[in-house]
Amino acid sequence: MFIDIAAISLKSGKGGDGAISFRREKYVPNGGPDGGDGGDGGSIYFVGDRNLRTLMDFKYKTKYSAENGEDGKKKNCYGKKGQDLILKVPLGTLIKDERTGKVLFDIKNEGEKVLVLKGGRGGRGNVKFASSIKKTPRYAQSGLKGQETNVILEVKTIADVGLIGLPNVGKSSILSILTEAKPKIANYHFTTLSPNLGVVNIEEGKSYLIADIPGLIEGAKDGLGLGHDFLRHIERTRLLVHVLDVSGSENRDPLEDFDLINNELRDYSEKLLEKKQIVVLNKVDIEDSELFLEITKKNLEDRGYEVLVTSSITRTGLKELKYKIYNELQKLPIEEETFDEYYDEKIDAPEEQEPWTVEKVDDTIYVEGPFVENLLYRTNIDNYESLDYFYKRLTEVGIIEKIKELGAREHDSIFVAGYEFEYME
Asked: Which positions bind Mg(2+) (predicted)?
């Protein structure tokens, strides 16, 4: 089975909490704070792997979490960083935001590694809050929560050449002869249920990758048959080899078949018709094939297409086709698709750069935004010193000043990230 789309949930690791600890050593009077920092949570990466062809693994497991960071320890010992989670995907995988459909990353190269979710930062231990004024701080920071998101993985086969055409025109047979691939071949429609890939070797250092795209049918662009799911694989190819059955064995007109397929390509994406096409008139070994051969060949050549005549049974024309494809590829540029990609936000931006808002609604002041949410999450509201640090940070970034500008009076209720605080001058 070929799985080329998968929806999965991701969660990076939570940062470990900072430790509250004090030195307790013999002969060391007035031991100071020695609580260490918590370890950062593990991040989630995707890596391109040329040995993978499908997203089968993601079909059976859909939730992935990186390891949490360890809490800080006494004696200034830091908590261990959470282990990163590295997920391997086939080359040609798009990583999309499930909510918006926006492409975040496009993995094309072997070993290409992209960061999708960064782990939460570890909290600072109480040793980091010691100063000449406050020598024995009795508070520490909690680690930041990990990030969560849902993504869609979508594989678009990366091949130099795509074999296209209606079902049962002989594409798989041509592929098996040109390469060492062993596609399933039989005389019925939809034999090919997934794109078969093979390498065509010309000589040492000269080769190309060819894909047998599953047979299309009329209405493929609208999702009929297998076509809609696999039209995307044609987008990555540089050259199309359009295979037609000129034997008349299924009572079809090859010219009508040619136009039908190209109409499906055009309706899916105008760019597909801009790709170079070589037309292959196949199955000329079958009796009565000459009835369609000459008129089809002349018609297509008059339209400007290069036409080759082949037979998988007698091997007619296949050597010529093999080298013709290679020579055409030398003339075609390697094009890279571009997308509206990557995150607009800075995942690991300093707290001071994280957004916050202060607004007054019906005489009540509300403070919201990632900055205050993260700061409050890391604050022990039952600890006076921790609350004092919380107030200090709000002052440093200008939130307290903004609250004053909005006319806050003593004992007014101020809602910070959903929590109610009493305002004191």
From this structure: 172, 192
Contacts 24+ apart (CB under 8 A), 197-203: 197/53, 197/157, 197/159, 200/322, 200/325, 200/326, 202/322, 202/323, 202/326
Cα–Cα distance list, 251 to 151, 246, 248, 293, 318 (Å):
46, 10, 5, 14, 25
User: Is 16 annotated as belonging to a binding site?
Assistant: no
Instruction: Determine if residue 114 is labeled as part of a ligand binding site.
Output: no
For CA atoms 296, 301, 307, 309, give the dihedral sign: positive
- List the structure tokens of 205: 């250092």
For the stretch 179-225, pLDDT in tens is 865 544 444 344 344 567 778 888 877 888 888 876 555 444 444 44
The annotation status of 310 as a binding-site residue, yes or no, is no
Domains of the chain: 5-155 (2.70.210.12), 161-331 (3.40.50.300), 351-422 (3.30.300.350)
| pLDDT of 269 | 78
Residue 90 in marked binding region: no
Structure tokens at 350: 């300093």
168 is in an annotated binding site: yes
The dihedrals phi and psi of 256, each to the nearest 5 degrees, come to: -65, -40
Backbone angles phi, psi at 106, to 5 degrees: -135, 105
- Annotated binding-site residue? 215: yes
Question: Could you tell me the pTM of the whole model?
Answer: 0.58
288 annotated as a binding-site residue: no
d(CA 197, CA 178): 11
